[in-house]
C-alpha cells in the first residue's frame, strides 16, 4: 500500500539547484512540507518562494554540510518551524573531472568531506528527530550514483565517494530496520544539471546523450520511493544491467573503461 505523504516533512540538502531543487518541488507537489538546506541562501530562497507560490510549504536554511554547528542549527530550525521530520534526502555533493594522479590531496579530502562525511552527518542528525516524530515515515534517502559500481576515469575520486555513501546506506538499511526505518540509495547517471559544468569548469559533458537524464525523472522516482519504499532507485535500468554485467566480468569492464578514457584523452586533452 502506498504511503500518504500529505503534510509529511522532508529535509533536503544540496537543495539550491539540480536534483535537490527539483526533488524539493516534486515532494511539495506531492503534499509534503519541505525544508531546503544548502550554502547559497539566495538560491534557496528562490526555490522556497517558487514552492510557496504553487501553494506548497517550504522553508530554507543556509548551511554547509561540512559544518557540524550549522547543520545542527538547520535541523533544530526545521523542527521548530515544521514540528517534525519524516524523511531526509542527503543529496549535497560535487565532483571534479580530473585524473586521480593529478588531484591535489587537499581537494580529494574536501570532496570526501562534502560527499561522504556530509552525508553521514546529515543522517546522524536526522535519525533522532524521526524517532521523536509520532507516525514518522522514518525514511533516509542518499544520493549515491551509478558510478558507485565502477571507478570512472577522470572521476575516480568522485566514484569512490559515491561507493562509500552506498556502503553506509546498505549498512544502515540493516541496522535500523527493526525500528521501522527505510533507507533508499539513489543512483543517477549523467543528469542534465550543472554538475558537469561545475565538475569540469567547462560546458562540456563527457556523458553520452543516451546515458543522460533529466532531474525531473530522478525526482519522480524519489517521490515514488517515498510512497512505496525500495532499497535502491535507478533512473536508468539499462545502466544498472550494464554495470551488473561489468561486475560479473571485470576484464570486460576494464576494457570498456580503457576505451572510454582514450576517447576522453582525444576529445578533452586529458594527459596519460
Low-confidence stretches: 196-205
Structural class: alpha/beta
Strand order of the largest sheet: 3-2-1-4-5-6-9
Strand content of the residues, in percent? 5-15%
Give me the number of helical elements: 9
Report on this structure:
The chain has 272 residues and is α/β, with parallel strands linked by helices. It has a single domain, classed as 3-Layer(aba) Sandwich (Rossmann fold), CATH 3.40.50. It has nine helices and nine strands. It has helices at 18-29, 41-53, 68-82, 105-132, 156-175, 195-200, 215-227, 237-248, 250-268; strands spanning 9-13, 33-38, 57-62, 87-90, 139-143, 182-186, 190-191, 212-213, 232-233. It has a seven-stranded parallel β-sheet, with helices on both faces. The chain has a two-stranded parallel ribbon with strand order 7-8. Helix 1 (18-29) packs across helix 7, helix 3 runs parallel beside helix 4 and helix 8 packs across helix 9. The longest helix has 28 residues, at 105-132.
